[in-house]
Structure formats: C-alpha cells, structure tokens
Design brief:
It is a single chain. This protein has helices at residues 26-41, 124-137, 148-171, and strands spanning 46-48, 58-63, 68-81, 84-88, 98-102, 105-111, 117-123. The chain is 31% helix and 27% strand. It is an alpha+beta fold. The mean pLDDT is 96. A hairpin with a 4-residue loop joins strand 2 and strand 3. The chain contains three helices and seven strands. The two termini are 21 Å apart.
C-alpha cells in the first residue's frame, strides 16, 4: 500500500463517517505501518483511514515536538478547552490552506495498533492534528470548519488545482 495515492476530496470515502474497527489484530498493525509510510512519502503529519481508501476509524500521526509516532484506533475526544485559529492544509486537498479554529487542549482515548487502550492529553499542534484526523473519520475536512465565504472560495480554488492534477496524471 505504500505506493498508494492519497484519496482526493471529495472522493469516497472521505465524505462518509468511517466504521469502528471491531477486531484489532495483525491486519491493523500492517495497515498502520503502511499508513505511516504513505504519510511520510507525502510529507504529512497525520493520516486517517479514509484518506487511503479505508473507511475504518484509524489514524496515524507524528507528535511534532518529539517526533513520536502515534496510532489511534477508534479515537474519541473526551475533553476540550481553549481555541485558536491557525492555518491548516490537508493531504487530500493539496496546495489549499485556510485558517481553522481548533481547541488548544484535549483529552483523547482509543486503542493503539496492538489493541491496547491509550488515553492522553494533547496540546498545541498535537491537539490540532488529532482534531483534524478525527474530522476525517467523521467524514469532514478542514474546510467544513471555516466560514461559508472562505469555504466557497477555497473549494473553487481546490477545483482548479484538482483539475490540473488530474489532467497532469492523464498526460503521464
């Protein structure tokens, strides 16, 4: 799967809520490893199952300060506080950026790729990445979090970029 492309918005399954993972076993460990490879190949800091065509509640991310790899299966955001606007982009909408409001701190729980329970607090950029990836699991992208005028302008910009990308891919 490492050579697999990231799914571009609005292709399926990006716009659908992902299903929970019922059995965490070797297939999930393998999927997580492949997702880390794809994330790294695209210079990302997070990647969700739907972005690689897997409509399951799994996300991988890299803690930015310590460069720690984290896999969350069936993540739930439990508590939140604060808010700040920062610019975000997305591997599924390359070259599109917008100021997005996010909580500054949160508590998340879920399972790791081996099925062990995890629960921790996250702040700053790590909290932002987790929220961004959980949005993907809920069928949302970062543009769903911005005001209507910005969203419309950014979606128009995205349509032009996507069209150019698809034309370039056909020419290869």
């Amino acid at each position: 799967m490492a050579s697999k492309d990231v799914i571009l918005y609005p292709d399926v399954p990006l716009t659908k809520r992902a299903a929970p993972i019922k059995n965490v076993g070797p297939a999930v460990v393998k999927l997580a490893a492949e997702m880390f490879e794809i994330m790294d190949a695209h210079d990302g800091c997070g990647l969700a199952g739907p972005q690689v065509g897997v409509s399951k509640r799994i996300t991988v991310l890299r803690e930015p300060e310590r460069q720690t790899d984290i896999c969350l299966v069936n993540p739930e955001i439990m508590e939140t506080e604060g808010q700040e606007f920062l610019e975000e982009g997305c591997l599924s909408l390359p070259q599109v950026f917008a100021m997005v409001p996010r909580y500054t701190r949160l508590r998340v729980r879920g399972l790791n790729e081996h099925g062990r329970p995890v629960e921790f607090e996250a702040a700053g950029m790590l909290a932002r990445i987790i929220q961004h990836e959980v949005d993907h699991l809920d069928g949302m992208v970062f543009l769903d979090r911005v005001d209507l005028l910005t969203r419309e302008a950014k979606l128009e910009e995205w349509q032009e970029i996507r069209s150019e990308m698809l034309t370039a891919a056909e020419d290869r």
